[in-house]
């Protein structure tokens, strides 16, 4: 278990003090995937660098499985660091070394024999799907393959914790998915705690159990992904959550609704947003039963599973035809069921 207690980090710069991290409290359970999101400069990297003593807090305590990290130094700190693997956006590989040598690198100081190191590195290369590329150099690999080397290297000392600092930010969507699959596999197989910093909410939705949102050094919101995605409290969290939902929405709603407005000028076009448990309820069926004179056509729709997969966000774009008072009644009914309705065209 990782515990950050009232952690602050202030840097002294020529321009004055920078409060990079400001009174942060955070607990990450063992085996959990914890996402940290926030804009550039929010303090995400500084926060996680205090986990392995790459930065020491100005105040507060960092505990890993009950051991204070922020007071360690020398060999004890070096030993502690081995328990934490890290992967980065720009891979940080050694360009003059082969895949195998890169993976072996962290083991060089750990006192195991060369034969043992080679064997272990080969196993890790197999694990990340690069078993047949061990003699290649990083420059000969694709971005996704380079990150796989980064992951294998991060696992070399059998860490308990893996920190991913924007590790998929430089990759295309397909490669990102492959790397996320690999991280999910590792999390489950090795019971590794993973902390994943990203500005991409789909990475959080896909992988994380819990998420924290950082702004100006502060943790402004945190909780299970299912809760934060379905019921975000803070403005910034809403922006992050919505940016993700909007992006994964159907391609061209504007075009589709424009076409439909042309085709059915008399219809009301409405978007219905479902949150959490509502997705599983027969709300639409009930609405149709209660308002039989309202005809509803579904134009577009999408449901996103989130977090523990017990929960979801869904949006339906529908066209409602019928008497205005019936339509009003139907919309009232939906609002009462806590479905967010938004009229896109009045017909
Ligand atoms: N060594 C340092 N010396 C001075 N200021 C620093 C140092 N490291 C970070 N900062 C400042 O602390 C703040 C937080 O930086 P940090 O790198 O933690 O942000 P971040 O959320 O990781 O951003 P990004 O998404 O761009 O990586 C920034 O204002 C940054 O300029
Ligand atoms: Mg950063």
Describe this structure in words.
This protein has 347 residues and is an alpha/beta fold. The chain folds into 2 domains: 246 residues, P-loop containing nucleotide triphosphate hydrolases (Rossmann fold), CATH 3.40.50.300; 93 residues, 2-Layer Sandwich (Alpha-Beta Plaits). Helices cover 35% and strands 30% of the residues. It contains 12 helices and 14 strands. The strands form 3 sheets. A 6-stranded mixed β-sheet has the order 6-7-8-3-9-10. A hairpin with a 4-residue loop joins strand 12 and strand 13. Helix 4 crosses helix 5 and helix 5 runs parallel beside helix 6. The mean pLDDT is 88. The site of adenosine-5'-triphosphate has 12 residues, from strand 1, strand 2 and helix 1.
Topology:
Blueprint (H helix, E strand, L loop, with lengths): L1 E12 L2 E13 L4 E5 L6 H6 L9 E6 L2 E2 L5 H9 L1 E5 L10 H6 L9 H14 L15 H12 L6 E5 L7 H18 L2 E6 L2 H7 L2 E6 L2 E7 H6 L4 H13 L5 H11 L4 E8 L7 H8 L4 E12 L4 E11 L2 H13 L3 E6 L2
Parallel strand pairs: 3-8, 3-9, 6-7, 7-8
Antiparallel strand pairs: 1-2, 1-4, 4-5, 9-10, 11-13, 11-14, 12-13
Helix pairs in contact: 4-5, 5-6
Adenosine-5'-triphosphate binds next to strand 1, strand 2 and helix 1.
Protein name: Phosphate ABC transporter ATP-binding protein
Organism: Ligilactobacillus acidipiscis DSM 15836
InterPro entries: AAA+_ATPase, ABC_transporter-like_ATP-bd, ABC_transporter-like_CS, ACT-like_dom_sf, MetN_ABC, MetN_ABC_transporter-like, NIL_domain, P-loop_NTPase
């Amino acid at each position: 278990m990782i515990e950050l207690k009232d952690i602050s980090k202030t840097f002294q710069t020529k321009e004055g003090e920078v409060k990079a991290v400001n009174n942060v409290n955070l607990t990450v359970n063992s085996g959990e995937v914890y996402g940290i999101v926030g804009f550039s400069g929010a303090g995400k990297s500084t926060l996680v660098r205090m986990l392995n003593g790459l930065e020491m807090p100005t105040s507060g305590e960092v505990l890993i499985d009950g051991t204070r990290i922020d007071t360690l130094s020398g060999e004890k700190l070096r030993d502690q660091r081995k328990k934490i693997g890290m992967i980065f956006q720009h891979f940080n590989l050694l360009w003059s070394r082969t895949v195998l040598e890169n993976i072996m690198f962290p083991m060089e100081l750990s006192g195991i024999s060369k034969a043992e190191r080679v064997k272990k590195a080969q196993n890790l290369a197999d694990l990340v799907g690069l078993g047949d590329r061990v003699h290649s150099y990083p420059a000969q690999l694709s971005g996704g393959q380079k990150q796989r080397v980064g992951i294998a290297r991060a696992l070399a000392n059998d860490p308990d914790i893996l920190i991913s600092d924007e590790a998929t930010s430089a990759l295309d969507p397909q490669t990102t998915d492959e790397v996320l699959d690999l991280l999910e596999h590792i999390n489950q197989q090795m019971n590794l705690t993973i902390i994943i910093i990203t500005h991409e909410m789909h990475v959080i939705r896909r992988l994380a159990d819990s998420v924290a949102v950082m702004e100006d050094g502060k943790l402004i919101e945190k909780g299970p992904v299912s809760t934060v995605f379905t019921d975000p409290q803070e403005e910034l969290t809403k922006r992050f959550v919505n940016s993700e939902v909007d992006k994964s929405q159907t391609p061209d709603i504007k075009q589709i609704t424009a076409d439909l407005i042309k085709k059915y000028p008399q219809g009301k076009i409405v978007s219905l947003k479902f949150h959490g448990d509502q997705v599983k309820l027969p709300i639409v069926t009930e609405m149709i039963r209660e308002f039989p004179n309202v005809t509803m056509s579904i134009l577009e729709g999408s449901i996103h599973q989130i977090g523990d997969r017990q929960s979801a966000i869904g949006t339906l774009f529908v066209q409602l035809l019928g008497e205005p008072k019936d339509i009003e009644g139907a919309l009232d009914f939906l609002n009462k069921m806590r479905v967010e309705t938004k009229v896109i065209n009045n017909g």
